[in-house]
Amino acid sequence: MELSENTINDVFRNRANKYGNRLAIEKKMKGVWHSATWNEYYERARSTGLGLQSLGVGKGDMVAILSENRLEWLYTDMGTLGIGAVVIPVYPTLVAEEIGYILNNSGAKAIVVENKGQLKKVLEIVDKCPALEKIVVMEEQDAQGHKKVMSFNALMELGRKKHSEDPTLFEKLSIKVTDDDLATIVYTSGTTGLPKGAMISHGNIFWVVKSLDAVRPHYATDKDCTAPFLPLSHVFERIPGHFYGMYCGITSSYIESIDTLLADFEEKRPTMVLAVPRVCEKVYQKIISQVHEQSPFKQKVFRWGQGIGNQISQLRENHKAIPLLLKVKYKLAYMIIFKKLQDKLGGRVTWMTAAGAPTAPEIIRFFNAAGITVIQGYGMTETTAPATMQSLGDYRIGTAGKPIPGQDIKIAEDGEILIKGGNVIKGYWKLPEETAEAFTPDGYFMSGDIGMFDEGGNLLITDRKKDLIITSGGKNIAPQKIEGLFKSDPLFTQFVCIGEMKKYLTGLCNINLEEAERIANEEGITFSQREDLLDNPQMLKIIQQHVDACNKHLAKYETIKNIRIVKNEFTQSSGELTPSLKLKRKVVLQKYKHLIEEMYDKEAVDELYNK
Fold it and tell me: Residue 293 to residues 96, 265, 473: CA-CA distances in angstroms?
């Protein structure tokens, strides 16, 4: 019988005792898998935690982690939590100045960095961070350059020495941690101005874990395995992925990189996948692009199979019986079309998430038809990730599902989603005024999102409160619906709707150069490099035809009257996307202000209305 559990520390100790020498975690590095059993995982985390304690890190002290996903990230996370200290995840894409702000704002006593690239950033600002006492480098050969620098191996050796002196110390420290203690401070991304540190307690984390466990049927069991690729720095991968996965006893095989995702999936054959909508969209667009390269007959067969798949998906969604003839047709369609998608993901995936932003229904139904139930949900850093989730036994495409067990959600008069529950943070680190402004007088967190409940109790997210476009004619327009429609077309990789206080809507877009090349070859358009197509008059005419096709599905006031192509792709490193691949709308609007002004200057307006 397992001992009682009140924190993730208790869970970690119990699972290590339960599963012992079974594989717990592994990570692919330079083509080689590095692994740890549950016993090894616990020993290495304990050594890391006690090593930090040897350096003077105590309960309530801050330890930052600046690294891509790797096993040392997990050892640092669980070791730090085990000694009662507080973990500060830092996105590895941040620049030195941003890292310096987080270190100083949190008062971090130590930071664990991945390699010389990340170390270089910290060394640029180390003299401006008076609280920072130690910099630990995961890559042994990179641990040099400053008196405060030491290697990760040396840190663990300190911890092992400490353990030999007192074999019960780590357990005593971890048991002393209570649900009221602060576990982690996660700095919010994707907004303008300085980031705010969301204070997540051990109680917040464990509340989410227990709430997800209360959903039936279970999302996961100890027979499941996953291949994570989202950053552990993000609350979504760390809480429902890492911590809930630990609670269930799953095996996690962290892939090498996004570039090796499909190859790693085929090798490790995960049974479930935590993903964001952009990943689903890319996979879908890739398949559609490949279909367009096939013969007219094969394209016709694909459309037939897709139609069968949609019927099957809709019947399953509505809990209706599938007619015998349709079952026969679907079996054929599955073998011809959908099995290829399943095989690409390893052949065993039963469900995956598409959380964090809207996903086009046709994309979800395509995955569902392949036997991969796409689960949507809703949450944010301030709710320790999930606030609502669809269940495997009851989902409605286009909704964010029902509130997770114990979650209290209501809709304000202006449509804002208000949230209360054990997963909601107590506030922002050192920001009492901002904390007070984030809550209603009766204690509900004000999400900043607009939504409503459908007749089945599922939450519908219509838009961000601050992202609603109000045209000069007074129309309130939700841009995400329009953007989702355009992104379901393989030609557009990104689309940003513009129109605040304007007479009409316009758009900024990224073009999928692979799809543009395919179309150019099909239409006999000559070019030297793919990039040249973005200035080719024939291709621009075709792009406009795709805009016109999308506009047919929109109300007149929602149609896009003009577009500008942003030739460089929106990325995390260039600042337009958050680490979870969500669009930083304000950044885009500011960065490409000149293109937006072009679409609304007098000549453009006159040309538009004189057509």
Answer: 45, 25, 43
